[in-house]
Design goal:
Blueprint (H helix, E strand, L loop, with lengths): L5 H18 L8 H9 L4 H20 L3 H14 L6 H20 L8 H8 L6 H6 L4 H12 L3 H22 L7
Helix pairs in contact: 1-3, 1-5, 3-4, 4-5, 6-8, 8-9
């Protein structure tokens, strides 16, 4: 299961907004003639450097959630940015393509949100069970699964795994009192 934290979505949104702000033309301030000139004007070296940094960060975030086609588009943008003649218009079109591609990819993903408590149970399933695991290491897998199932609101599965832990305890108790029937 892929773990992805919500703050990464915020970072992705900020990076795209930052890039959009750098390449878009403020239409309300200029005449059509100046807009065409801006659209065909090359990005400055500083702008290209700042965009490259932003897109590298964006690429890392997209790699985390396996947005492979979006990463391909970011790679195209990074290639374009390396060209001294890369224009505001090209950057704007590439950015629009990036947003559409990301939207299409995200439509095909399903994200589950966990509360702080659920997240803690899921990420630290052994917490509070150390003495049991130390004494009976064969309970480890079922303890981990029980806690993860509980965190994901899969209560029937959590009970199943909990009963597996109880069963091991009962078998060990039977061995202690010398019961000959293994179950």
């Amino acid at each position: 299961m892929l773990t992805f934290y919500a703050e990464n979505f915020v970072q992705i949104g900020r990076l795209i907004a930052y890039a959009r702000g750098m390449v878009q033309f403020p239409v309300q301030k200029f005449s059509d003639t100046r807009m065409v000139k801006h659209h065909t004007a090359s990005l400055s070296g500083t702008q290209r450097g700042e965009l490259a940094t932003a897109f590298k960060l964006l690429r890392d975030s997209c790699m985390e959630i396996k947005l492979e086609l979006t990463v391909d588009q970011i790679d195209r943008i990074l290639t374009g940015i390396s060209d001294d003649n890369y224009t505001h218009g090209q950057a704007a079109r590439h950015l629009e393509d990036l947003e559409l591609r990301m939207t299409d990819e995200l439509k095909r993903k399903h994200f589950i949100s966990l509360s702080s408590l659920e997240s803690d149970l899921f990420r630290n399933p052994r917490q509070g069970w150390n003495k049991v695991i130390e004494r009976w290491p064969e309970t480890t897998d079922d303890i981990i699964e029980a806690m993860k199932c509980f965190a994901l609101s899969r209560y029937t599965a959590a009970v199943f795994h909990s009963l597996q832990v109880v069963e091991i305890g009962i078998i060990k108790l039977g061995e202690f009192v010398q019961v000959s029937d293994p179950k």
